[in-house]
Amino acid sequence: MPESAEVRLSPFAEALRGAIRQRGATLERLAEHLRDKGTPVSLATLSYWQSGRSQPERAVSLAALRNVERFLGMRSGELAGLLDAPRPRGRLAHRVPTPVPMSKVWPDARSRHRALDGLSPRDETRLTRLSIVSRLEIGPDRTERHQWNRNILRAEEDGVSSMVLLFWADSDQPPPVLVPTRNCSIVALNQDEEAGLAAAELQFPRPLVRHETIIVEYEIEQPGSLPATNHERRGRMPTREMLIEVKFDPRALPARCEQFSEIGDRHLVRPLTWDDTYTVHALGLDLRPGAFGIRWEW
Question: What top-level branch of life does the organism fall under (predicted)?
């Protein structure tokens, strides 16, 4: 076959095929491992993945992909970050996903406008949220001690250079301290002290090109003295994977803890139990715009 007629593999398929080859594994052994982990994938599907004929898109396939990465000795999200945007299906196949109005996620219009004043959130709709991880530590006095966040993002157009972050800032408490730690710097920061809402524009080291991924990490320190009762993330764009963790001090454990989501008109709640490290977590896959988080009672 002439070179010009060869099929060019997608970045995902090429990386998957190379990792399998480097590990010296077979598709049969990989399929067996996925069955053992409770995330079975057929041999035919694995073959399609590495040949570029298809890719993981549904929640069960994305869960299996995390076990593929572990089996092949890859970093978490290394393959997931190379996936193309999911193909539209059925009656929606001709539509392009659009963000929900900001008012659906942050209903207080005055506070939202004051917090966003001077920021440029236009890049938000040009970023795909592949993975969001947020970890919160609660101290023995029931207050928030430390919050760590990681976002794996993919640009869907050339020139994407920043992201906008909206977060709570209690009006009767000292303002939170936002600390960029990886691949971002603060170019603007606003706080609406009356309503307790803050916004920041985080700039990337350079503009991204289409389909380029970036890992952005930052921390938020809350110096206040009020007991914390929840940790949630709100977004107006879909998120492929969201993991929220809350670690409690064993000297101050809540009476009740639950996962919740507010997606459109649907409000779902599920009770949570902490593990051996006194940590609870909530995992959301293929989340639509809305609120997702963990709340508790003392």
Answer: Bacteria
Q: Are residues 51 and 185 in the same domain?
A: no
Q: Among candidates 35, 41, 34, which has minimal Cα distance to 71? A: 34
53/283 Cα distance (integer angstroms): 29
Q: Are residues 14 and 120 in the same domain?
A: no
219 strand-pairing partners: 148, 179
- Domain annotation covers residue 89: no
Tell me: do 79 and 135 sit in the same domain.
no
More confident residue, 168 or 48: 48
Residues 267, 161: one domain? Answer: yes
262: tokens are 């507010």
Phi, psi of 156 (to 5 degrees): -100, -5
Residues contacting 128, CB < 8 A, separation 6+: 85, 153, 154, 155, 156, 237, 240
Name the residue range of residue 32's domain. 3-84
Query: Quick check: is 159 in a domain?
Result: yes
Rounded to two decimals, what is the model's pTM? 0.63
**Sequence-distant (≥ 6) Cβ neighbours of residue 30 within 8 angstroms:** 20, 46, 68, 71
